[in-house]
Amino acid sequence: MARGRLDFYYEFASTYSYLAAARIGPLAEAAGVEVTYVPFLLGPIFAAQGYSTSPFNLYPEKGRHMWRDLERLAAHYGLPPIVRPATFPANGLLAARVATALNDASRPGFTKALFLREFAEGQDISDPAVIRQVLAGLGHFCDAPIEAAQSQANKDRLRAQTERAQAAGVFGAPSFVTPDGELFWGNDRLELALDHAVRGA
Amino acid sequence: MARGRLDFYYEFASTYSYLAAARIGPLAEAAGVEVTYVPFLLGPIFAAQGYSTSPFNLYPEKGRHMWRDLERLAAHYGLPPIVRPATFPANGLLAARVATALNDASRPGFTKALFLREFAEGQDISDPAVIRQVLAGLGHFCDAPIEAAQSQANKDRLRAQTERAQAAGVFGAPSFVTPDGELFWGNDRLELALDHAVRGA
């Protein structure tokens, strides 16, 4: 039985969401925390803050540091070297819809595998062919997940997840929210969030 | 003999600079890293990025998270509970000038003690009386440090330190820079920066 619960809010275009997605599985298992994966879209949340694109593009020095930081952290965590996709931030809409359409058992594997394509292979995750390859690699050999992703009901579900993120105070990705409403922002806070999920306030 | 070197760039108005200042002494000593304390002003650096004040004030949700994060981290590190100063960000000009005027032996103690006044007691560090009390607590019983701080030569030194920060790519505080030019932004990166200072690239 789980000793605690945690909502993991992530956006497929987000570099630090990649690091969190790569790490959260074993860390949560070791802590006995049950994780709910909640893909959402940063676009509307950034727009509400007045950002037209990623702050890493708006502030070039911050962006330079982020890419270097990402390289260092990937090495630190034992992840493959970073390969920057040609376009940043990627359009993560289809990816988020597919992740939303998958069931709870398939979502974590898809999330982790697609992030690896994006930031360890530099692939364009807005390309349906890339998403299809990742799905096939996980045993989904037909277009059903992509078709389900494009249904109105699923689009609405993703929109509701983004609204849920906003209601929880999420302003960036990744974010972690515990059942008592504590919000932890950033891959750097994953350990503290897991700890809080177990210990409580 | 030191096994490595590190420049520690900090701004007295910065909450995460407080956490770094509270932690860097023993961590650097344990790692065998010699730290150069470089107070600087974020104002000109934020202005160059188009910010009129702290991003934590410009983005209320980010600001709310920062204060809660600070409380949690203070508890995590075993620091006193956070007491928010009435004005944030404080005007850290005089504090930075005094820190600059002090010698290398006195600067770390002054830095740590003034930050404690600011974020563990909620005092206004732009108030010369608060700075005088901190100086007295460290054994400086006359106004010489404050007078030295206001000399043109010292003002120029602080300005040069801010320019040196900008030249090193610093865009926020705290930041750590190793002799090979690696920039690490944020209290969260202190350990990695110390590690890099020892191991090299």
From TrEMBL, chains A, B:
GO MF entries: 2-hydroxychromene-2-carboxylate isomerase activity; glutathione peroxidase activity; glutathione transferase activity
One Pfam annotation, family name?
DSBA
Q: What keywords is this UniProt entry annotated with?
A: Isomerase
Fetch the InterPro entries from UniProt.
Answer: DSBA-like_thioredoxin_dom, GST_Kappa/NadH, HCCAis_GSTk, NahD-like, Thioredoxin-like_sf
Q: Which residues form the active site?
A: S14
| Residue span(s) of domain DSBA-like thioredoxin | 6-193
Q: Which family does it belong to?
A: Belongs to the GST superfamily. NadH family.
The protein in question is named 2-hydroxychromene-2-carboxylate isomerase
Q: Which organism is it from?
A: Aquabacter spiritensis
